Amino acid sequence: MKLVVGLAGASGSIYAARFLKALFSIEGETYITASPASLRIFSEEYETSVKTTEDILLFVEEKWKVKPKHKFHVRNFLDIGSDIASGSNVWDAMVVIPCSMKTVASMSAGLTENLIERAADVTLKERRRLIVVPRETPYNRIHLRNMLALDEAGAILLPASPGFYQMPKTLDDLGDFIAGRILNLLGHSQTLFPKWEG
Ligand SMILES: Cc1cc2nc3c(=O)[nH]c(=O)nc-3n(C[C@H](O)[C@H](O)[C@H](O)COP(=O)(O)O)c2cc1C
Fold first, then answer.
1. Domain of residue 154, CATH code
2. Structurally, how many domains does the chain consist of?
3. Which residues bind dimethylallyl phosphate (predicted)?
4. Which pLDDT tens digit goes with each residue over 42-65?
């Protein structure tokens, strides 16, 4: 599995952290970039200080003592000349987690000012899978229109709204619900939460 993962500046760092933790134990490789806003919010929500994308990976590795089976390639958020800015570099899917309404707006309008936006644009034009995990509440009509435009362009909107029927005990359980649903969409079996048995 070859992925691109972008962390944009929405609340919900836990979704990114638990998804990355899950990726650590899966064979494959991921190109990853985090926006400055996402680093700030991650720092606030985890009461830590992450200044770079590498810091986030290190944080996840140390917090949950996971040994990486997965290969991560960090890319600079502002480097729109990066390898993942071109469709000639082939990846299976891209995940934007969490995704701000600003990045939703840019992606839906085809604006590509940073590497998350450019890689998302490439993902859509190459007809690859783009999974977007938006977080805002409430939504205004602009947000809704932009999300509809993204869906119409082929993206999958997987909102940061975990289910509660699995009886989550911890915040990590809520993060794992979203991480597991993404893995399902990536065609990967997952045991982060049990299947609903009816
Ligand atoms: C603490 C904090 C929480 C935020 N939470 C959200 C959010 O949940 N959803 C959202 O759309 N924007 C949120 N924002 C605003 C975005 O970070 C801001 O629009 C930023 O420009 C997004 O840029 P990016 O998508 O390139 O990271 C938040 C900002 C801060 C400082």
1. 3.40.50.1950
2. 1
3. 165, 181
4. 999 999 999 999 999 999 999 999
